[in-house]
Design a protein that fits this description.
398 residues; alpha+beta; four-stranded mixed beta sheet; 18 helices; 35% helix
């Protein structure tokens, strides 16, 4: 339902002279003039404006090499249950072909099915439908619907309503950069910068890739060190280069300290030589030497890529004790995918998957739940060999 405070912002409504429509129920509807059928609605075109995007026309795509048609919204007479009735073209032929304009958004192309950041910043939503309001010849976007109902409406099953509509007010669905959003067919809900702390690195990277220039730099600057490192790992090379170029010395040093040798090698391989040389100064001597070997001296070996972030326990350790130690370790979640069981000589005896550990009773000993047929890699294994091992065994760490 449209919120009461939303209605107050729509100043052109008078009494009950309005109705709500769903885009999923309009797409594919016949568009006709009193003289003949023009085609079927392929998309609705809106111009972004404050506080709501307003319809500027109907986009009709005929296929088979036939030109598209664009029917200006002021030519629409009526939207009925079965047809959208429009005035015929003044010249009696066809409406002109659609030509995109700055500030225009196509609902199906730029909104439906697109991944967007939810307004609370805690998860990622997908737009399944768009909620429209028609009044006195005008049509505006008032919500996007992130529920399953949008799919049901599109296939003529809107009456089922398996779940409640998840309506997000349009005022939050504003791209960081409108022209960039149109050009790249992406949109994002506006998000408070402090809410970014709850989003995965992959989603933050997607946001950063939508932005450009000062917006990108500003967004990245407010991420904490851990989130900045996560998003840098997941970002595409072009974005990585731009973000690193804008970093201060202090910021670069703290972010790079969060990254492992393989992650650093992946990022540095996309950077110009001079930038790599400068960034190397921010690393510990050990990290810098290992990274230099990988980048310049020889192809990486397993010993160059390994991490020291892991947990080991004795065979007699109880599950409850191990879980307490994990919670106190402050290691990244990737580092506790497995825990390793070693003997007094620190030789590897077994491996315990974290999922198996969580499900076991607290008093159970690790020796009773560990996998003792351990798969290991030799220190001189090459990356290709390691990739084959991961593919073969489906392990998340070796």
């Amino acid at each position: 339902m449209l919120l009461a405070n939303e209605l107050k912002n729509i100043t052109f409504i008078n009494g009950k002279d309005f109705r709500f429509l769903w885009f999923a129920e309009l797409i594919g509807r016949s568009v006709c003039s009193p003289l003949h059928k023009l085609g079927k609605l392929t998309d609705l075109v809106f111009k972004t404006s404050e506080p709501y995007a307003e319809a500027v026309g109907i986009y009709i795509e005929h296929g088979w090499g036939k030109p598209t048609e664009f029917v200006p919204w002021d030519r629409v007479i009526e939207i009925t249950q079965d047809v959208i009735l429009v005035h015929p073209p003044d010249d009696g032929t066809d409406y002109p072909a659609f030509v995109d304009q700055p500030g225009w958004i196509l609902v199906d192309e730029h909104l439906i099915g697109k991944t967007v950041l939810d307004t609370d910043g805690r998860r990622v939503e997908v737009v399944n439908d768009v909620h429209l309001l028609e009044s006195k010849g005008r049509l505006i976007i008032v919500h996007v619907d992130a529920s399953l109902n949008g799919f049901l409406r599109k296939w003529g099953m809107g009456s089922l309503r398996w779940v409640n509509d998840k309506l997000i007010p349009w005022r939050y669905v504003q791209p960081f950069s409108l022209e960039d959003a149109i050009k790249t067919d992406t949109v994002s809900l506006s998000i408070k910068k402090e809410q970014a702390a709850d989003l995965p690195g992959e989603d933050l990277a997607d946001v950063l890739e939508m932005l450009s220039g000062e917006e990108q730099e500003a967004f990245f600057s407010v991420l904490d060190v851990e989130k900045a490192a996560e998003s840098l790992i997941c970002a595409e090379p072009r974005v990585r280069r731009q973000l690193i170029e804008d970093l201060s010395k202090e910021r670069a040093e703290t972010i790079l300290a969060e990254l492992s040798i393989p992650q650093l090698a992946d990022i540095f391989s996309d950077l110009p030589h001079d930038d790599v040389t400068e960034l190397m100064q921010f690393l510990s001597q050990d990290k810098a030497e290992r990274l230099h070997q990988i980048l310049y001296e020889h192809e990486a070996e397993a010993k160059d890529l390994m991490s020291s972030d892991f947990l080991t326990f004795s065979e007699e350790t109880a599950v409850g004790e191990a879980l307490q130690a994990i919670r106190k370790s402050a290691l990244d979640k990737e580092a506790v995918t497995y825990i390793y069981v070693v003997n007094e000589e620190r030789l590897l005896e077994g491996v315990v998957d974290i999922r198996k550990l969580i499900l076991a009773p607290d008093q159970t000993r690790l020796t009773d739940i560990m996998s003792s047929a351990v798969v290991t890699a030799e220190e001189d294994k090459m990356p290709k060999d390691l990739e084959e091992m991961f593919d073969k065994y489906r392990y998340r760490m070796i």
